[in-house]
Amino acid sequence: MKYTEEISNKLNKLLIKNYDAEKGYLNAIDHVDDERLQMFFKRRVSERSEFAKELRTEILRYGEIPEDSGAFKGVLHRNWASLKTLLTSNNEEAILNEAIRGEEAGLEEYNEILKDRNLPPTIDSLLLKHKSAIQASINTEKSYKELV
Question: Where does the DUF2383 domain start and stop, copy by copy (predicted)?
Answer without folding.
Answer: 7-116
